[in-house]
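Hi there,

I know you've been waiting on this one. I reran it after we fixed the sequence typo, so this is the corrected version. Both the input and the resulting structure follow.
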Amino acid sequence: MASIPKYQFSRLYEDFALSPERARLRRYVKEATWMIYGQQAEIQILIDECNAIIKKKDNAGSGSGKVVLTVTDLHHPDMYEAYPGLSEKVQLLRKKIRRHNKDACHAHTIAQYPIQSSVYSKNLLTYGLCKVGKFLPTGEDEKYYQHPPHPDTFALKDVSGLDPLTEFIVNNIESWARRFVKTKEYDEEENEIDPEFEVRNGGIRLAAIEAVVNSFTSLYAPVLFTASIAILYCIQSTKNRIVVAGVLGMILAASAQLLIPGVKRGEVFAITAAYFAIAGVYIGSIDNVGG
């Protein structure tokens, strides 16, 4: 069976530690559902057995109304003494219900994890981990680790919900990086790209991209507002100031959509309204001073 050197596995896991968005894991929803349904069947069998013990002892129920008791009607440990063998069944029933609920919570949590971004899904293929139909680190069917991402897999880190600028960079940096690789690592003798360089350096680190965009935003915001004040101050005509304020307001609204992740329309409207309120006061104060 084809294989790759073991050191590549170590490099794979090191890359995952640095960039969790590259990692892809199985959900096992099919198996988890099968397991939980099996637990429910076992629980139901135990409930029926407990109720059978109670029914056998009471035979015709309890009281003049002939009410048939079930296991959930017994609330006190001392009542178990009246039903031999019931205590052990109830203790086992409790354990199985706890295990069922815990496993159901885990399955629900895993099901909510995001599917891997297509950008990192393609990046995973560069490691060459699939041979003869198998994913080499685990021996699983390679279909779970091909592109596009399989629905029964998830990413350790979600890249959805990013601001549009970061998302644009993430979606395009792979092609930019490959152009750089082709330029810098072209082997004239072999006429090919060094595969070691491509695997080691062709990846994308989301944290680095976010840091760059955050730094840009921190610089862009004060520059935008400072430039707005300077431009409005330099314009002499009130009508022109109003028109320019409108243009600057449009730029601010577009910037909010571009640089703020998950911003809502109402929030953009509120930001723009606050800007125009301040701009209107500023324009009025300039006119009063000029007058």
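Quick highlight: The chain has three domains: 6-27+115-201, 29-112, 206-290.

Best,
R. S.
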